[in-house]
Batch of 4 targets.
Target 1
Amino acid sequence: MQDTRLTPILSIGGLVALWIVAGFLTDDPQILPQPWDLVPRFQQELASGELLRNLWATLLRVIWAFALAMTLGTAIGLAMGRSPAVNRWLDPWLVIFLNLPALVLIVLCYLWIGLTEAAAITAVTLNKIPNVATILREGGRALNPDLDAMAQVYRIPWLTRMRHVIIPQLAPFIAAASRSGLSLIWKIVLVVEFLGRSSGVGFQIHLYFQLFDVAMVLVYAFSFIAVMLLVEWLVLQPSERKARRWRAA
């Protein structure tokens, strides 16, 4: 039986092979450098400390925006899923914010709040809350009414009910929102940094874009992609499997 653990490695290997072929066909390192051409540039940035400093700055913004968006989006989505009246009132807001371009919110936050860290995190958070709320609204609608009625009959305290009745049922929806949310948030964070911050991966990409340095753009892009892949494989996927385990039991 084929070891499925090798599949992601082989898949990434195929992507790298395609990159190498495209590099040979282009035959211009200024347009598309080969993967091995990035190694000395990566080592240089790592040794100077710039790479780690900017990765950490971006990661902090991702963590803050992710935590705020998941907390607020879960509360809003659950309220909409549990209450038809709340859903009728908030659904138009949800539709508007879902269709409002991320760039518009980023620019407005910078204009209203200023080119500050608070504006950057607020812009990313506002962009993600509607997506989380949409997923968790479906989770609220999917809650088993029999379990809820049983909890009320036995007068289970609210916190205990949330921990043992509501959260386990919402776990797959929270996991789905987390996975999709993280991939969206870090991309928006890069745009926020590109437009108005003085640190982070997005700022560095903006800097090397102005210098037409494709190699350094790829170094910073792939460095943060590697960080996000580690988070996906080591944190999010195991959490999602654990969240779905009780349904298969």
Target 2
Amino acid sequence: MTIPRLLVVDDDAETRAMLTQFLQQNGFIAHAAENETEIRASMQAGRVDLILLDVMLGDENGVEICARLRAEQDVPIILVSALSQDHQRMAGYEVGADDYVAKPFNPDLLLARVRAVLLRASRSASLVYRRRLALFRFGGWSYDAKRDEVLSPEGYQVALSQRESSLLKVFLANPHIPLRREEIQAALPDNQTGGSTGEGEGSGRAIDMLVGRLRSKIESDPKDPRMLRTARGVGYVLAVDVAEESPA
């Protein structure tokens, strides 16, 4: 249920905006950075699942940045560059880049490469995830993913529909990250909203209704929610910490 969070790094404002919007339209959370300082600030601010890193960043070099990041962590990195000769590609792979995409590129091909790198990165982790993550605690509540059970702070069980349970999992996997309605819709199984599944206003209303139903189950005052809050101009955010525990 976790929505991949991508970071687009390019010193050209128009390219950053175009790629960020394209990735958001295809179901990702996408943010932009212009240089290494902004990369590190974004990574400190929250989870980053993949970096699209341009090689030529004004006075900075993307290959060198990739080498420094790789020495510290294993976040997937795709280098993007107009420099596409074999020795230039090899320089990227040698410092630990997961892929190298030459400019100009077909956006759909880039999307396929992004998904392939994310899939490779998650394969080994996904097996561990299925074994270990079963219990989530948030705002005094608990959700047992194995049993699909929700318990209130007072210890009584709250019944959720399949759609409400799926929505809760999306928020539990992305705490403190404002999610747009389109991102929530894309993360639900088979775009499961309980209403219109098309793009635009209809699907947004369906998400609003689904969030409203979930609030009525887990908020003490659904009209003034303290956990599942509205992120003005964006969508919704789970505004409490989430702790993950192994099953008993």
Target 3
Amino acid sequence: MENEEENLNVWHVPGDESSGKFGSVGIELKKGPRAYKAAYLARYGDSVTGEVKKQELRFRTYSSSPWGQGYDFDDASSSWYCENGEILRLTAFLNEHFTEPGSYRVIKDGSVTGSILSILEATGIDAAELGRALAERGDVSAVISGLASTPAGLAATEAAVIAQRRQVVAHLKRLAETPGTNETQMQSSIGGNYWLFGGKYTGMANRRDMTYLDQHDIPLICSDGSLHIVELKGPNIPRLVKRHRNHWIVGNDVHEAVGQAQNYLRALDEQGLNLQATYENELGVRYDMRRAKATVLIGHPDHVNAPLATRRSIDQAIRTYNSHLTRVEVLTYADLLESAERALTFEEGIAEDRLSVEDSGLAEESDVFDFDESPPF
């Protein structure tokens, strides 16, 4: 351990109002025969209001002068820096606040969040209990609106929605992979979770018997008001694909399901104009039934009864079949649920990025500032 009584050199550099720099402070970390190390802390902001918009902590190493006297302060041999929330994380790390491995979040002292946490710690109330109590209020929508009004609150709200949706996907995956699960069970579990099918859908039609003689499993409404019919079949389809000569082709169950979907589309084409006017005039709802599309959701690779069939060969057979269709697409439950998981992972990343921006104390991207101080000797 170094002698704690050795001299400690600290210097201050005045600010520059024209560049929004409040000034900086530097400290000597090491003065050795081969290298000189220093740290600098600078603050930038609005010189009129005094608001600090950016803090920057920079570390530099200077090599000894090649002429044998002093150090080469004009050219740092190494340099790195951190800013805003990164400085808080580094400070917490050096103060040994992270005693256990895991994920942490920085809360500013004096903020509303910090005040609530202080109350919870003082009273011993569990945060989950507080959340349940707020959910029982009559103005719970106002509470949620308030939470979502800040980037951190919005990120937390989104995280809760994503977590709930992950549970839905996990449940559906277990059902689809379980032998004996039928179409009715899958439809019941999918329920109103139209987001499973992608972001271009805004909801589900409130009627399943959109045309005469037919009843649709899941009538989705696209963002342009048009219809997209989802025809569900069970996940346990042993003959989803079959070997034909030297290639894999889809089985008869797929052909029949696609034929059923094509009949639905034909009925919408033939009856759509009259039904569209009837629904709008009598029920006040508007569906665009012209040139609707359909998806057949059928089978799961785990249940295919063909020893040589791999996931790749199954996907290729269905993709080849889909390439010859125009308004109908065939999907397996594995395809649908894996796609939904990827979408949730993407949304999760956006929520985490928003939270990181909030933790750093930046509402918008900071400007790039010059930082060229060197020790004043």
Target 4
Amino acid sequence: MRNTFRILFYLKKNAPLRDGRLPIMARITICGQRVQLSTHLAVARELWNASGGQAAGRSRTARELNRHMDDIRYRLEACYRKLFLDGSFVTPAMVKEAYFGVAQRPRRLLDFFRRHNEEFRRMVGVSRCQATYNKYRCVCRHLERYILRTYRRCDLAFDELDKDFLTGFHAYIIRQCGHRKNTAWIYMIALKHILMLARSKGYLNGDLFAGYKLRSEFVARNYLTLDEIDRLVRSEPPSATLRLVRDAFLFSCFTGLSYVDLRGLTRRHIQHNRGHAWIDLTRRKTGTGVSVRLFALPLAILERYFPAAPDDRIFALPGNGWCNKCLERIVAAAGISKHITFHAARHTFATTITLSQGVPIETISKLLGHKSIRTTQIYAVITHSTLDGEMNRLSARIDALYPNDTAAPCSGKAVSESETFLVPAE
């Protein structure tokens, strides 16, 4: 594809200097991608020719500004030509870096991955999640060991990566690291994201994952039945921590809140509308709004832990891992033989509390705060009680249309059992 390299000078009108002049910016555009940079020049608004992208008039100030901009244009074009002749897939960011004299950073996978993780870490708690950061760190460590084990090297250049590298790393995660297929799928998706970022910066010329099939396998998700929920409600945990975890888990079973949203729940998230108490919050994971009405049981749990201050957390839960260890003791003491984690509460809400009671899956998706109904379909499985109920209703309708007394042989002669299964000789 033919590169369309353009340079445009314009005024930054929303950031005037103290003397009223406006900064002059340069915009580099290549094949639809663009980047801006400061020229460290400024001009009065009335001295600027917007259509020509230069200072207007023949004054000394205008001539000096235009000369400086011509010099900047020449240097930017020189940087672009050098990168283009080197055979690189040139991006505006690369031209900008070359113009400012930024040393060419090593085009190596692990070096790039570590820089990505460091930038990601600085945004944790702002617009990034700690769990996602931990996932990227884990994938980077696996890559370090794989490259050292397979290539006897500390790092690999992007130019050395190929499909054999992908298949080898995929097999390494499953065979040497002992991870399951879905875990390997998650790690490979993370690597795909890193390689896409590297490609956008011009470090990769092609998509290594093009045609590479990544599939996850269906895993049955545990949830509690109504009888098991009742046993959990009637259980008596021996310590205050176990009682807190039990109550928070039950609260999640009846509201569908995830661990991270439940842990951050405060009085401000509880609203009273239309004569009932509701939870109104924004999910940390997806940023979607959630509004769930509180039934009698979760409302009783809420009143037990309701804090005095509006910004205090309602459930002062320990870490998610510790909660899962507590749940192992709690469900075992209640006589439940399933492997239950805190996230199983959302599965219970989607399956036992809502879907089994006839709630449409579109409503369940909204209650869970999912962006896509396909995600909800993973949670909501058809239970035996739901299947029995649907088949009973279907049977009643069909039997009403075709009762037993309507069934009759086609001929007046009765068909004997022996004749029914008679097989003709060949």
